[in-house]
């Protein structure tokens, strides 16, 4: 590859994750190319160029990878067949297409966890009609789509037998409805040379209306045993996948004190945004370091933090209008990230705010002010 600081990075996906990856890659002096179907995507605003194409367009993905020294992605739902062909031809793609194939089919993800004795909730594929499967499995249960689900989509809770009438119509599996005390997450980085670094355990709170993460608290308010157990399990997930890059491991802490893996993301993750302001190395820089074969950076939490997602308001669609920016910027320790999406929709992630404070309770109080003051409507 010649001069390591003269690398060309290809990113499949031009959303906010791609944008923040590109910003870190540019710090290293890399050239950045992105592929996304939306002209003027957030990542294209900081990249050298954008290929406007669908995530399953084999020809255009080939074009991106062939002009890049290293390729990566910020989204799971992409064409893995062409990526496998390109890797076979000698091109570098991290995480590997095989890892992506395991992750993007959530039933294969569950099988991988079971095979590697990694704790996860009880589950069963829907092979017959859903009604009889539900009777056999027991209620309440969660129906999950094998493909395509994210940000609360592709999930349906079945409390009673008649709920089956409104269930998902796709390949799916049933999962036990876990009695959750907290939802936890851990970011883990593994470099191309096999070095592993683990970030602090964080807790996630969800907007119940859309089942979408709206707050992340770092560090998680759990005891040392739970922190260690969650960290160990997260590392074992990435080792089992033989993954290279940054991975977000979402977990349930049950009321009985068990830690169970919910889902794995083979990319930077919403639960790791706090690392930009609060850690020695952000998740985005760490991803670039990992896939480029550089030494991994310190994952030390320098100061407690709370991250709040800026979601599009209900009832508004169109060109975004951010109200309350000045009120938020007046809060000590608050940093605003606006993603640059051209259209807002209800519950769409339009940006985030991270609040750092030596006192986590004070940070949480400030986060409530942010939620109250900062609104995304439309013109």
Automatic annotation (TrEMBL):
Its EC number is 6.3.4.18. SUPFAM superfamilies: Glutathione synthetase ATP-binding domain-like, PreATP-grasp domain, Rudiment single hybrid motif. It catalyses: 5-amino-1-(5-phospho-beta-D-ribosyl)imidazole + hydrogencarbonate + ATP = 5-carboxyamino-1-(5-phospho-D-ribosyl)imidazole + ADP + phosphate + 2 H(+). GO terms for molecular function: 5-(carboxyamino)imidazole ribonucleotide synthase activity; ATP binding; metal ion binding; phosphoribosylaminoimidazole carboxylase activity. GO terms for cellular component: cytosol. Residues 110-292 form the ATP-grasp domain. Keywords: ATP-binding, Decarboxylase, Ligase, Lyase, Nucleotide-binding, Purine biosynthesis. It holds the Pfam family ATP-grasp. Pathway: Purine metabolism; IMP biosynthesis via de novo pathway; 5-amino-1-(5-phospho-D-ribosyl)imidazole-4-carboxylate from 5-amino-1-(5-phospho-D-ribosyl)imidazole (N5-CAIR route): step 1/2. ATP binds at residues 106, 144, 175-178, 183, 262-263. GO terms for biological process: 'de novo' IMP biosynthetic process. PROSITE patterns: ATP_GRASP (PS50975). It comes from the Bacteria. Homodimer. Belongs to the PurK/PurT family. Catalyzes the ATP-dependent conversion of 5-aminoimidazole ribonucleotide (AIR) and HCO(3)- to N5-carboxyaminoimidazole ribonucleotide (N5-CAIR). This is N5-carboxyaminoimidazole ribonucleotide synthase. It comes from Biomaibacter acetigenes. The gene is purK.
């Amino acid at each position: 590859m010649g001069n390591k600081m003269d690398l060309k990075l290809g990113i499949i996906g031009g959303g906010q994750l791609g944008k923040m990856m590109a910003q870190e890659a540019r710090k290293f002096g890399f050239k950045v190319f992105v592929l996304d179907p939306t002209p003027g995507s957030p990542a294209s605003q900081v990249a050298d160029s954008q290929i406007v194409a669908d995530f399953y367009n084999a020809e255009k993905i080939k074009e991106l990878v062939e002009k890049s020294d290293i390729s990566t992605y910020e989204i799971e739902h992409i064409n893995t067949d062409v990526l496998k062909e390109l890797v076979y031809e000698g091109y570098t793609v991290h995480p590997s297409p095989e890892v992506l194939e395991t992750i993007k089919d959530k039933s294969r993800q569950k099988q991988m966890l079971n095979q590697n004795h990694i704790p996860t909730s009880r589950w069963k594929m829907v092979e017959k009609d859903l009604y009889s499967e539900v009777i056999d499995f027991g209620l309440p249960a969660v129906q999950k789509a094998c493909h395509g689900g994210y940000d609360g989509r592709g999930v349906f809770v079945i409390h009673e037998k008649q709920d089956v009438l409104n269930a998902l119509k796709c390949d799916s599996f049933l999962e036990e409805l876990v009695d959750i005390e907290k939802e936890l997450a851990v970011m883990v980085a593994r470099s191309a040379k096999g070095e592993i670094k683990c970030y602090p355990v964080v807790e996630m709170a969800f907007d119940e209306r859309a089942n979408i993460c709206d707050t992340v608290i770092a560090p998680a308010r759990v005891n040392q045993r739970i922190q260690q157990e969650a960290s160990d399990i997260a590392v074992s997930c990435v080792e089992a996948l033989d993954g290279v890059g940054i991975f977000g491991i979402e977990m349930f802490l049950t009321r009985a004190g068990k830690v169970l893996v919910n889902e794995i993301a083979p990319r930077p993750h919403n639960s790791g945004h706090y690392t930009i302001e609060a850690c020695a190395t952000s998740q985005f820089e760490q991803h670039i370091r990992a896939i480029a074969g550089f030494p991994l950076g310190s994952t030390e939490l320098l100061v407690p933090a709370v991250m709040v997602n800026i979601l599009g308001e209900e009832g508004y669609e169109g060109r975004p209008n951010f109200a309350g920016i000045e009120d938020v910027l007046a809060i000590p320790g608050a940093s605003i990230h606006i993603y640059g999406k051209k259209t807002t929709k209800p519950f769409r992630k339009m940006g985030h705010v991270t609040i750092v404070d030596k006192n986590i309770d004070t940070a949480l109080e400030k986060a409530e002010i942010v939620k109250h003051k900062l609104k995304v409507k439309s013109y």
